[in-house]
């Protein structure tokens, strides 16, 4: 029997193409994404069918499961004005470095009298700070004693001065009890803010409901999705 | 003489000519690929692709609601939803303004079948049928009115869920207001009655 000789093949694979793909993806991710903002607490938001994207330059009020309120403002220019205003009105005696730290910093939840101590900390160690939440006074909800109302009002004024009035978003944990949420909402409504957004995660529209019919009517070209239930 | 050696090495050279070792121009790119994917993984984990989704809500403020603009909700249009502990939902139709005839509270949950959604759909259908029956006070453009009253032991999730149900079922007239002691009394009475069964 004649032995059939197989040609010897190299085990080396040309990696150039794979390398190209890897760096193409890398470039895409670098350009298309934004760094996750530091979050002081992990908040699991409830889901809804709303698909309104969170507006730019918004004030974000985070409420954790125990009801602590954190404040964040996604507008560096307005934040600089805001801390100047807070510094003079509340007499915090902040240094320029501490103001800069506020401008760059993420969500915080502190009463005014602890602000200086917090901002003096090195930014790397700030995330280990034990926040107590922004105090909400529930007797009148007015900005003179309700610190959350003061922050929101001052931030809105600062935002208007920079030409971009902010919208207010509330990001609250699903398991927070209603009275804590009510305090935050009352703080806003008592200060004449009646429109705001609640941050929710997206869920599918249940089939056969009015919302599903409306969606199908506005997008008739789209194939009706298969039933999942 | 300077000469470029292009031969494959088969030819014999003179004794004085040094033979340069032929190096491959191929570089092993495997480590570079590794690095590329490592960086991709890093970027995926540290960044957010999409902005979070939000739901818009409008709350009545004391200034925005003028006394003269207020119209009383019609009895047959109104449905009151009370959010209670353990994701429980109580609801009754009508205004319940007669203390002598307290409403019967139905209890349900946020489940898909026989949950609050079915109750809302049934209520909407009922209003749309009854508004055309020509009874005094019934007008053809009456819309169902939903009053949401979260109790103090309900959770934020319940509030979002019920607001979401409004959107799911196309109910545009709703209001979220504070729970009253009367409504709390209804819940306690219903709980007591159910416990007896």
Order of helices and strands of chain A: HEEEEEHHHHHEHEH
Strand order of the largest sheet of chain A: 2-7-6-4-5
Quote the distance from N terminus to C terminus of chain A.
65 Å
- For the residues shown, what is the average pLDDT of chain B? 78
| CATH architecture annotation of the domain at 73-187 in chain B | 2-Layer Sandwich
Instruction: Determine the number of helices of chain B (DSSP H or I, runs of at least 4 residues).
Output: 4
CATH topology of the domain at 73-187 in chain B: Nucleotidyltransferase, domain 5
Number-wise, the strands of chain B total 7
Name the poorly predicted regions of chain B: none
Annotation, overall tally of beta strands of chain A: 7
Sequence of strands across the biggest β-sheet of chain B: 5-4-3-6-7
Biggest protein-protein contact in the assembly: A-B, 64 and 53 residues
Beta-strand percentage of chain B?
Answer: 15-25%
What is the averaged pLDDT score of chain A?
81
Question: What is the gyration radius of chain A calculated from CA atoms?
Answer: 25 Å
How many strands, which pairing sense, and closed or not: the largest β-sheet of chain A?
Answer: 5 strands, mixed
Characterize the quaternary organization of these chains.
heterodimer
Helix content of chain B: 25-40%
**Which structural class fits the helix and strand makeup of chain B?**
alpha/beta
How many helices of chain A? The count is 8
How far apart the termini of chain B lie comes to: 113 Å
What does this structure look like?
- The complex is a heterodimer of chains A (229) and B (197).
- Chain A is an alpha/beta fold.
- Chain A has a domain at 47-202.
- Chain A is built from eight helices and seven strands; from the N terminus they run αβββββαααααβαβα.
- Chain A has helices at 16-32, 76-90, 96-104, 112-120, 123-126, 147-161, 178-190, 210-218, and strands spanning 34-35, 47-48, 52-53, 59-63, 69-73, 168-172, 195-202.
- Chain A has a five-stranded mixed β-sheet with strand order 2-7-6-4-5.
- In chain A, helix 2 packs across helix 3.
- The radius of gyration of chain A is 25 Å and the shape is extended.
- With 197 residues, chain B is an alpha/beta fold.
- Chain B has a domain at 73-187: Nucleotidyltransferase, domain 5 (2-Layer Sandwich).
- In chain B, strands 5-4-3-6-7 form a five-stranded mixed β-sheet, with helices on one face.
- In chain B, helix 3 (156-168) links the parallel strand 6 and strand 7.
- Chain B is elongated.
- Chain B starts with 29 loop residues before the first helix and ends with a helix.
- Classes of the chains: A alpha/beta (229), B alpha/beta (197).
- Chains A and B meet through helix 1, strand 1, strand 2, strand 3 and strand 6 of A and helix 1, strand 1, strand 2 and helix 3 of B.
- Strand 7 (195-202) of chain A pairs antiparallel with strand 2 of chain B.
